[in-house]
Amino acid sequence: MTFWDRIGAMLESARKRTLGAVLENLAVQTQRRNEAAFSIALIALSAKMAKADGVVTDDEIAAFQDYFQFPEAEGDKVRMIFQLAQQDVAGFEEYLRKVARIFDDAPAVLEDVLDCLFYVAAADGVAHPRELELLEKAAKIFATPADAWRRLKAAHLGLGDDDPWLILGIEHGVELTEIKRAYRALVRDHHPDALIARGVPADLVRIAEGRMAAINTAYERILTEIGVKTA
Fold first, then answer.
1. Residue 159: is its pLDDT beyond 80?
2. Which residues have a Cβ under 8 Å from the Cβ of 141 and sit 6 or more positions away?
3. Average pLDDT, the chain
4. What's the pLDDT band for 176 if we cut at 50, 70, 90?
């Protein structure tokens, strides 16, 4: 069964019940971490973040397609997920809690989902206050660590005045060996191969690029701050 076949099977189930019920079912499955589960969760949350006018517009689908590059032949499935999510009386927070349960043993995957939601929110070049409020709500429900939240904000909105030490998740003034150890661990955890292993669809692993840029910038700023020359 292909990736899109699995999506289709989930949609058949959702038509008989609700998309929220499908997410709930995924949360109790033992073998639930895969590309289809990740994609259903992401598309559903993206639909909930869209303007709650109850209508799926072509513009909304086009904007999402710029990010989630699905084959045109599978467009009806994506539109159906948007429609089912927007028709469901369950709200954004309830969907967040269901997704948090699906990946309750994989906090890195929840960070990947949040990263994707950031990308969707900032697709027009700016994250509006309401969108940031929803993202902060997602981070709280996902129990996203403070340093991971800062990395995601830096990846999509720029490093700004954020403390580079906090972005790498290390204390001010630690030894250079500890700084390098933290940096290498982050590089390993956010490498595209690591995302694919966690069930992120291959077409979405480019989210790692922005995160890695934020990590590299923070690392270089720390080295400059402590007087270590970078190559």
1. no
2. 93, 96, 97, 100
3. 82
4. very high
List the domains of the chain with CATH numbers.
1-110 (no CATH), 145-231 (1.10.287.110)
CB 172 within 8 A of CB 152: no
Distances (CA, A) of 68 to 53, 109, 121: 22, 17, 13
CB within 8 A of 143, min separation 6: which ones?
Answer: 100, 107, 110
Helix (H, G, I), strand (E, B) or coil at 93: helix
As given in the structure block, the two tokens for residue 2 are 């292909």
Q: In 10 A of CB 85, how many CB atoms? A: 26
How is residue 52 written in tokens?
Answer: 């709650």
Sign of CA dihedral 38, 41, 43, 45: negative
Residue 113: CB partners within 8 Å, gap ≥ 6? 38, 41, 42, 45, 99, 103, 138, 142
Joined tokens for residue 37: 């589960």
Q: Which residues contact 198 (CB under 8 A, 6 or more apart)?
A: 33, 106, 108, 109, 112
Residues in the chain: 231
